[in-house]
Write a structure and sequence with these properties.
The protein is α+β, with helices and mostly antiparallel strands. The protein has a domain of 154 residues. It is 22% helix and 19% strand. The strands form 4 sheets. Strands 8, 9, 10, 11 and 12 form a 5-stranded antiparallel beta sheet that branches. Strands 7-4-1-13 form a 4-stranded antiparallel beta sheet. Strand 2 and strand 3 form a beta hairpin. The chain is globular. Bound molecules: zinc ion (ZN). The site of zinc ion has 4 residues, from strand 9.
């Protein structure tokens, strides 16, 4: 097991990343959504060292970190390389997708580039939750490829029923507003700061002491600590 997996996910302050990455990720900058409302971009990111680490890191029982960082050619070239970066709020997205999977009764397939998209992505004009790592585009559930109004509306209702936190794009043909070939599951503009990071008011690169922390493993740690029930003789009824 690699040291990284043992330590848990690495959280970085994006102000301390190199110039190129800061230009791509734009930590703390304000962007406007389609309604002209302003939203602050994420500052704290998980840094993922390798494809192997991404695959090995399960955010929930059925969602690996690798599913949230699949990039397409419209994404900034630097983000096709490791280490990769994804806003920490992706953990919440994974949680809701796990609930959605249970409600839908089938595996939920996140599209390539269907989760995190940086503000440098070629299709990024207005702020969308994808830039916060809090939206997922789902084109297939189990063996169903979503393409009919009936299917999409059925799963949209299922997603909205999970929580008031969840919104979807209604069925329709206007890209970015509606969806006619996928479910866009959206938690809004959530900024998540893991408890292990120490926040700093300074929005300046700290090259001498980059700000980062390792998250403690949560679920796995708890699971390891579970005291097994004492062995008892099982009855065969
Ligand atoms: Zn979307």
């Amino acid at each position: 097991m690699s040291e990284e997996v043992v330590k848990g996910l690495k959280v970085v302050d994006a102000f301390d990343l190199d110039d190129e990455l800061r230009t791509i990720l734009r930590p703390g900058e304000m962007v406007r959504d389609e309604h002209g409302r302003r939203h602050r971009l994420p500052r704290y990111f998980y840094e993922i060292e390798s494809h192997e680490a991404a695959v090995a890191t399960k955010l929930t029982p059925h969602f690996g970190l690798n599913e949230f960082v699949l990039t397409d050619l419209k994404e900034a070239p630097r983000l096709h390389q490791y280490p990769r970066y994804v806003p920490c709020a992706v953990r919440l997205l994974a949680f809701y997708l796990q609930q959605f999977r249970a409600a839908a009764g089938g595996s939920v397939h996140i599209a390539v580039n269907g989760a995190y998209r940086s503000p440098a992505h070629k299709l990024a004009t207005n702020a969308t939750s994808h830039m916060w790592g809090t939206a997922a585009d789902i084109y297939r559930i189990g063996s169903n490829i979503l393409k009919t109004k009936e299917q999409i509306e059925k799963y949209n209702v299922m997603a909205e029923d999970l929580s008031e936190d969840v919104s979807v794009h209604p069925y329709g043909h206007v890209t970015g507003k509606d969806a006619d070939d996928h479910v866009h599951l959206d938690l809004g503009f959530i900024l998540l700061i893991p408890r292990e990071i120490s926040e700093d008011r300074m929005e300046q690169p700290q090259e001498s002491r980059p700000r980062f922390a390792f998250e403690e493993r949560r679920r796995t740690d708890r699971r390891d600590q579970v005291v097994p029930f004492p062995e008892t003789a099982t009855k065969s009824d």
